[in-house]
Design brief:
The structure is a single chain. This protein has about 750 residues and is of the alpha/beta class. The strands form eight sheets. The chain has a six-stranded mixed β-sheet, with helices on both faces. Strands 6-5-4-1-12 form a five-stranded parallel β-sheet.
Length: about 750
């Protein structure tokens, strides 16, 4: 027998022994635990609730409040930040105090688990590495960058003593009005699935027995359908037939489960009139049974209470607890009282919640805590603190911001701007670090300018650094929705060569970001229109978490750059693109709509994209679109067989050449089209992507693999199906056709 086979079999045996040993430990703990102790494991309390205020935005863990949480209610999990963000040293002090108290006072020495929303880097830790938000990471089409983002985030929160990250967001962002679109990886289920797996694997690493000391638990969220509210408002109803739910919204979660994701957070809203926190079919039947999810389910903020306070499906809190726990919830993010503990105990004693359900929940929580290594090492590795905010981490963040930026228009090749150009910088997002970052940045809403690092630069500051102070004039022009000094700005612009107008959004997160109109505030249009009268070239930079309508000013802008929410290095990245130091390589992971109510996603059906103007996919900029400072030629699209069978793999090859004169990166996207299907097929669906770099004159071959699963769709019986027939491959401007048939 081959020695590597022997090694592999030995490894599998060790894993089996480890799993059996873990199950034995869990069984032993469960037998010893009281009902109150079990309910405590199912309870998560926010840090504020166990702190006393010690000044403006300053809090300190209270001995008395901590004692109540641990001694009286046996709380097994804590979350969040209280007040301003903390340094690693401050986090260490907090985590050590809570964990030490738990281990000293809990009868069975079960460690607590701490969770945080590290949404685009370790965003609640002073000095950490902040990345672009997920929508921007998706625009890079660089899977390696997403994994590195997760690896760095994991290390930095573990340095602080936090082993659990409430990320990635795996909602498929198919309503651009939604205020949390920037937290998603875009509108395509395949892309979200691929990025989600990369993020989960980057965050958790390869788990053999325990989570490594520099890795963290992933939490896929928000399961399920949260990202498609009918109104576009956060935490409002979605109406999604089950076939579409399984076709578009379930796949990223299914793939994350396969990748080993250990926790999941639930959709705060409801689908088809049923709150997901009370939906046993979605939580238990699909997630736990059908997908085989082995970890635990945590609620979102106070969402069990919302079953009666907001949704009116429960008459009171006690009934809400019964509904949620029986539906499959394992841990309640309470977050700031202990009524959950009281009511759940009463429900179990009355027989309204079976003990088997409690044991299942606690078993799952103990399993995750054991895999996280908290029983063996409940604190943190002090050596990690020195690595937080390393220069090489920051370089990855800068690269991500550069690769995300998407050039949407470049008339007469106005970009890159020539050295020595006289530039006016204006607009509501031109001189703000907060607006480069958006929500989840040092604070929940990300709007505290005083908290951003002094060594990072706004767009204006970065342009000054690049072109020189004597060549750059700043005049804000307008705020997000009000005039500041537009007339003065126009006057200052008379003597410059080019105008850089930074448009977009103020910071927001969750319901705070709800809007009723996807159009930009009219004052921003006015700023551009007034400047256009000068006849000067205008570069529009869009710094926004969702695609705000720009139809009325598209023709007034000579160049348009979509920067998304690029993070702390966004200013520098934008300046590097403007100057030509870096060629733009981002491509849209969303459709950029032209009209407020024309919100079609790219994977339209044939009936939604006819040749007549009345029913056509006609966005401002299509999904997958993005320009470069060079030109690429696609050629020699080849497939290794004309017929694909159910057990085989079809290999696709295409050559890409850089026919321009600058080094640049290109995202190569592969689409499939099912020509005829029993359910109306999309005209095309993304099924592969790769990012390559090419020197001038260089050519590279890119390959893709197509298997049966990439051809499947959800049929009328709600099961994946592949039907015999012709499929079309599209890469760039090239197409190939093949036939699929069942059999060997």
């Amino acid at each position: 027998m081959n020695k590597w086979v022997v090694v592999f079999l030995f490894f599998l045996l060790q894993l089996q022994i480890f799993a059996e040993d873990m199950n034995s430990k869990i069984d032993s703990l469960l037998k010893k635990m009281t009902l109150e102790e079990k309910i405590g494991q199912m309870t998560q309390i926010t840090l504020d609730h166990i702190c006393d205020k010690k000044g403006d935005n300053k809090f300190e863990v209270s001995d008395k409040k901590l004692a109540e949480a641990v001694k009286k209610y046996h709380v097994g999990s804590f979350l969040n930040v209280a007040g301003d963000p903390y340094t690693v040293k401050e986090w260490n002090k907090i985590i050590k105090k809570i964990q030490s108290y738990v281990l000293k006072n809990e009868r069975l020495k079960i460690p607590m688990i701490y969770g945080i929303d590290a949404i685009h880097g370790a965003n609640y830790i002073v000095g950490s590495t902040i990345f672009p938000h997920s929508i921007a990471m998706a625009a890079t089409w660089n899977k390696d960058l997403v994994r590195k983002d997760a690896e760095i985030t994991a290390l930095e929160i573990r340095a602080a003593g936090i082993p659990w990250n409430f990320n990635p967001v795996l909602g498929v962002g198919r309503n651009p009005v939604w205020s949390r679109l920037f937290e998603t990886f875009g509108e395509d289920p395949y892309a979200v699935s691929v990025y989600g797996v990369e993020y989960v694997k980057g965050l958790q690493g390869e788990i053999t027995e325990y989570l490594a000391k520099d890795r963290a638990l992933a939490c896929m969220k928000h399961y399920l359908g949260y990202s498609f509210p009918l109104s576009g408002h956060d935490r409002t109803p979605a109406w999604i037939p089950e076939r579409q739910l399984r076709e578009y919204f379930l796949p990223p979660f299914a793939e994350a489960v396969k990748a080993g994701c250990l926790t999941v957070m639930v959709n705060s809203a409801h689908i088809n009139g049923i709150p997901v926190h009370a939906n046993k079919y979605i939580l238990t039947d699909i997630l736990k049974k059908e997908l085989g999810f082995k970890g635990f389910i945590v609620t979102d903020w106070a969402d069990i209470k919302n079953l009666f306070k907001r949704d009116h499906v429960a008459k009171d809190y006690k009934e809400a607890v019964k509904m949620a726990i029986n539906a499959g919830i394992d841990m309640s993010m309470v977050p700031d009282d202990y009524d959950f503990c009281k009511y759940l105990k009463e429900l179990v004693e009355e027989g309204s919640v079976p003990m088997e359900r409690i044991d299942d929940a606690v078993r799952r929580i103990l399993y995750v805590k054991m895999v996280a290594g908290l029983f063996e090492n409940p604190f943190f590795d002090k050596k990690l603190a020195k690595k937080v905010g390393k220069k090489e981490f920051d370089e990855v963040s800068l690269q991500a911001a550069e690769e995300a930026i998407t050039l949407l228009k470049n008339e007469k090749h106005i970009l890159p701007l020539k050295k020595g150009s006289k530039i006016l910088v204006t607009g509501p997002t031109s001189n703000s670090m907060a607006r480069l970052n958006g929500g989840w940045s040092y604070t929940w809403q990300g709007d505290r300018e005083d908290l951003y690092p002094e060594d990072k630069f706004t767009v204006y500051e970065a342009i000054v650094n690049t072109y020189g102070k004597d060549n750059v004039i700043f005049s804000e022009g307008c705020d997000y929705d009000k005039d500041i000094n537009i007339d003065e700005t126009v006057d200052k612009a008379k003597d410059v060569d080019v105008i850089v107008a930074c448009l977009g959004e103020k910071t927001y997160c969750e319901t705070v970001g709800n809007i009723d109109d996807l159009s930009l505030p009219s004052i921003q249009y006015r700023l551009v229109k007034e400047l256009r009268k000068l006849g000067k070239p205008i570069v529009g930079i869009l710094i926004e978490g969702r695609p705000r309508i720009i139809k009325d000013i598209v023709d007034d802008l000579d160049a348009i750059m979509m920067a998304y929410l690029p993070g702390n290095n966004g200013g520098k990245a934008i300046a590097n693109i403007l100057s030509g130091k870096v060629s733009p390589s981002g491509k849209l992971p969303i459709t950029y709509p032209k009209y407020p109510n024309d919100l079609k996603c790219y994977d339209v059906t044939y009936s939604e994209d006819r040749e007549d103007k009345l029913n056509k996919y006609d966005p401002q900029f299509p999904f997958g679109f993005g320009l470069s400072y060079t030109s690429f030629e696609y050629s020699n699209l080849k497939i290794d067989k004309d017929t694909l069978t159910g057990t085989d793999t079809l290999h696709v090859y295409v050559d890409i050449a850089n026919t321009g004169d600058v080094i640049a990166k290109e995202a190569v996207l592969l689409y499939l089209s099912d020509e005829v299907a029993s359910i109306i097929p999309s005209k095309r669906r993304l099924k592969g992507f790769e990012k390559i770099e090419l020197k001038p004159g260089e050519k590279k071959r890119v390959s893709f693999s197509i298997t049966k699963d990439k051809l499947s769709f959800i049929g009328l019986d709600l099961e994946p199906v592949v039907e015999e027939g012709f499929f079309k491959i599209t890469v760039g401007n090239l197409t190939k056709r093949f036939y699929y048939r069942e059999g060997k």
